[in-house]
């Protein structure tokens, strides 16, 4: 039988007399374990990640007996889960992993939670003790359904072999449909070993589970009217649009509406960085242009985005003058963090397919505002405040330069995987993303140690698709050590991974916030001294790579870095790890102080370019000057001590940008000459010493 979930009183166990197999129908006779593997094969699964154990041994034997999906042996269960995530994100398929019971299953909690936060479709198959032993504190017994209940989309405890085909069909469908997410299937050893007859279910039977995919015509017409008449429209695109495969529709809506667009961290790559409509990534580590556009827009069209605090900063001051159209397949997200003027529940791609013709009709029938001044302002921000970096004064490598060089050599079809930390933000800023499904990272949960196993999963996915893409992992020395044992997996599988470790001998992001919160502005001349526990004494990464049979390289100068990148690009028979010794003083900019508004964005220490924009976004501006406030302090209102420290000498270095008034009049934008190392915007090339 299939036991109830905790919501249905999981604390009880049904009559154990049902545990014996009761073959039905005229299907092929086999064990429950074989039925599970056959189900995976019939569902089109070609890859399973996992670790063997006593309670899933029958499943692994069935994989062999039936020549089932390829099994990739990871060295830790958590890595199996992250590898399945990387596989799912790089291929658009459901990721599948398989582990045993007890500690093996509990090791899966982090990747399950990670997949839930980032809406990644996973089917997590765990072994469980025999049904007759459940509740007896048997060896390696753990209530994994109960443990993971808060962080799964759905879960099953299977005690009868006859139920396995229908459960697997349902689990796969639930994981992939609606808002994707992880589904746990906990299978007792008694169900695995029992005999059954296998018949493939024609379709999943799930009464009550009917995700809404198409929107009602009334809300679409209302949204189209707002888009057609907006003076400062902006598309705010989140990870849900990526999961929906809505890249083509997002680009078309941008063109039809004449609206620039910003993408959140999980949505990077849905629109090529070279697209002129692309403004940047918003949020606490976002660009000036992206955050300025959000604060100044009068209509915000959110597509598969959930308004989380890393994007909004202080939610009360987020997009203060904007009406909101919110499109999401999950009705729970609508209005959760920001009230929507027009709520639209449905699959992003399908909703946009229906919305775009209505926008075209509304613009044709009623006319539309001239958006020239709005684009001038947005382009002004992009030009005046580009993504740049400072050269370290100690002669060490700048991590931003390293990432930029890797990006330029790797090619536009590369799959980029990151761990979590400073390097993740630098990668988002300095990698040129031009293709869909090319960005794999942990966003909502922010899991350190995610990178290497996710890169293994992505590399296995690329191999399955046979599309010739290479996989680069950008990692930090701290997070990499959390799952470095997976070098053994990469080498055993013969995966030609390219691994760049940005080695600054610290937990860099935490270190940066530590200095900032102590009142030491992080910059190239920041005062030394870290809080105890933030230093990381790293191993010899080159020797570590070589010990696992991988190629290990080290770079401390630009010449060595360029040579190492070229060697990595030329290698195709084993993983290559490069230890880039970067400046420990390198910091992530821009950033929003804790608890601050996007108006408080610090471009560099002492430079607050958006100090007047939020106030201006909420009311009409003077047509001639675009002036919205007398000073940065006037615009931002009451501040925290950290924000006060950041506002030193803001006005002379960060002129407020003009905004178009509500009637479409022309505002003035001050432009300064760009200098130093700059990331390309639109179709421009990078400048600076490359």
UniProtKB/TrEMBL annotation:
<keyword id="KW-0028">Amino-acid biosynthesis</keyword>
<feature type="domain" description="Thiamine pyrophosphate enzyme TPP-binding">
    <location>
        <begin position="419"/>
        <end position="580"/>
    </location>
</feature>
<dbReference type="InterPro" id="IPR029061">
    <property type="entry name" value="THDP-binding"/>
</dbReference>
<dbReference type="GO" id="GO:0003984">
    <property type="term" value="F:acetolactate synthase activity"/>
</dbReference>
<comment type="pathway">
    <text>Amino-acid biosynthesis; L-valine biosynthesis; L-valine from pyruvate: step 1/4.</text>
</comment>
<dbReference type="InterPro" id="IPR012001">
    <property type="entry name" value="Thiamin_PyroP_enz_TPP-bd_dom"/>
</dbReference>
<keyword id="KW-0479">Metal-binding</keyword>
<dbReference type="InterPro" id="IPR011766">
    <property type="entry name" value="TPP_enzyme_TPP-bd"/>
</dbReference>
<dbReference type="InterPro" id="IPR029035">
    <property type="entry name" value="DHS-like_NAD/FAD-binding_dom"/>
</dbReference>
<dbReference type="Pfam" id="PF02776">
    <property type="entry name" value="TPP_enzyme_N"/>
</dbReference>
<feature type="compositionally biased region" description="Basic and acidic residues">
    <location>
        <begin position="678"/>
        <end position="690"/>
    </location>
</feature>
<keyword id="KW-0786">Thiamine pyrophosphate</keyword>
<dbReference type="InterPro" id="IPR039368">
    <property type="entry name" value="AHAS_TPP"/>
</dbReference>
<dbReference type="Pfam" id="PF02775">
    <property type="entry name" value="TPP_enzyme_C"/>
</dbReference>
<protein>
    <recommendedName>
        <fullName>Acetolactate synthase</fullName>
        <ecNumber>2.2.1.6</ecNumber>
    </recommendedName>
</protein>
<comment type="pathway">
    <text>Amino-acid biosynthesis; L-isoleucine biosynthesis; L-isoleucine from 2-oxobutanoate: step 1/4.</text>
</comment>
<comment type="similarity">
    <text>Belongs to the TPP enzyme family.</text>
</comment>
<feature type="compositionally biased region" description="Low complexity">
    <location>
        <begin position="628"/>
        <end position="639"/>
    </location>
</feature>
<feature type="region of interest" description="Disordered">
    <location>
        <begin position="623"/>
        <end position="690"/>
    </location>
</feature>
<dbReference type="Pfam" id="PF00205">
    <property type="entry name" value="TPP_enzyme_M"/>
</dbReference>
<dbReference type="InterPro" id="IPR012846">
    <property type="entry name" value="Acetolactate_synth_lsu"/>
</dbReference>
<feature type="domain" description="Thiamine pyrophosphate enzyme central">
    <location>
        <begin position="221"/>
        <end position="355"/>
    </location>
</feature>
<keyword id="KW-0460">Magnesium</keyword>
<dbReference type="InterPro" id="IPR045229">
    <property type="entry name" value="TPP_enz"/>
</dbReference>
<keyword id="KW-0100">Branched-chain amino acid biosynthesis</keyword>
<feature type="domain" description="Thiamine pyrophosphate enzyme N-terminal TPP-binding">
    <location>
        <begin position="30"/>
        <end position="145"/>
    </location>
</feature>
<keyword id="KW-0808">Transferase</keyword>
<dbReference type="InterPro" id="IPR012000">
    <property type="entry name" value="Thiamin_PyroP_enz_cen_dom"/>
</dbReference>
